[in-house]
Amino acid sequence: MSIKEAKNPHLSGADGHSGYAPDVAFLVTLPKRQMTDIHERLQLQLRLTKVLSPQARPLGPDVGLPMAMVISEDAAGSGHRSRRLVWMGSVARHNTPGTVDKSITIDPLRECREPVPLDGPDGLLALLRDDLKDEFDQACLLDWANRCSRALWDALEAALRERYPRVVPLLDWLLAQADPPVLDSRDPADRAWQEQQDATRSLVRISDFPLSSLNAWQRPATRDAPYLAGIIPQPSEASLIERDIRAAGPAFDLDSDWLRGDEVRCDINVLSDGKGRRLEIVNVNALPLEARTGTDMIYYHVPTESFVLVQYKRLDPRKKKIRVDERLRSQLDRLAEVAKLSSSPERPREWRLGSDPCFLKLAYWPENRFAKSVDGLTPGMYLPESYVRLLLEDECTRSSREESKARVLGYGSVERHLVGAQFVQLVKEGLVGTVRTTREALWEVVKRRAEQGQNILLGREYSTESVHERQQRNRSRSSKDGSYVHKIYTQETLFGSGSAE
Q1: pLDDT digits (tens, 9 = 90+) for 242-255
Q2: How far apart are CA 444 and CA 415, in angstroms?
């Protein structure tokens, strides 16, 4: 049966997505021998950069993240082509390596879980209209990346969904990567998920795992659910979803008695690589949505017993500042209490740039509800707690309004601040954070702050690396291994049954 009009069930807006289909897609065609030669490297790096065909038109600034298919062209006789779809991904970057050549980088890139022949009576192209077959043949230029139309992509996607159901989970995961749901700053649930999303991405960047590992997301079943409840795992044989977090609690040094009640919701995502490093991200909510006060990101490096805490505060989207009130001052006092868990350094590896393990992030989400960031961090100002106190004693933070003596923090009043990249690098290098803080003491902080109304994103990184090896990895500019194993532990008991739509 031919597909005369490609119908894509993914475009219906299910699972909170906006009904995304790429305005343009790419076909990368490689000879079989070259595909064989680079297969092992692709499995390790999970990305591919390829030069664009000279006939490929440049993309406009409004084009989102196009999808890409990587095709192996096998040897064929009698003038007939023999092609197979072997990898799929989404285009992360449009590069300009030289004055003439342009290229694309496909990241993430994933291998199809079953062979997908394209030519012949049983091939995928047999399901397409003749005009779309012709376009496909013209776009498949050997050893080039080339553009294809939205209509051709729609037809290929519909054919894949009809004939190769084992490929569908990968297709959905990649589409979710390319176009995550838009979060609206005016909605309380979306505001909470915005903050937890940024905290999650920060933890992934600090621990040096691929940014794509936790980018595929759909709205959770209820508005009270943590952000991690909506993570879509990468389809793989190694992936695991465990529905009872209470059974898994002891394995993560969690307080099972605290988790036993229905008031606490805890979700865990675990990323591990082939070199013994593991990142556990624990997302805890202890109160219903309307009772929560904000979001904390806590990163704990287990080998060095050091943690950093970031409390999120939202800047006014128009004025780009916040008014300092008694609530914020009391929150600073609580951060100062947390900082007391640190000890004095006794060894070179325990030295820090300062004694501040706690920061405020004054985060800026624009008023435009359609603004979104696929893999970057939300813009903002990272301010150490002791620095905030100095600012609040200085005239620079005094409101300019004569009738008001209120203090304000924002881009117009704080002359110096850390940005996301600087903060991440300091944490990765172990130059900020507590000294000799046990996991038991850390978990008490998590419980106390969750019960005070904070959404908690706790990342714990385990590693057998030495301090020198950690520094070498962080500073390496070579292509890094992009492979990892993703496991999810969640729980079915939720705060309520309200829709997240």
Answers
A1: 544 444 444 455 55
A2: 35
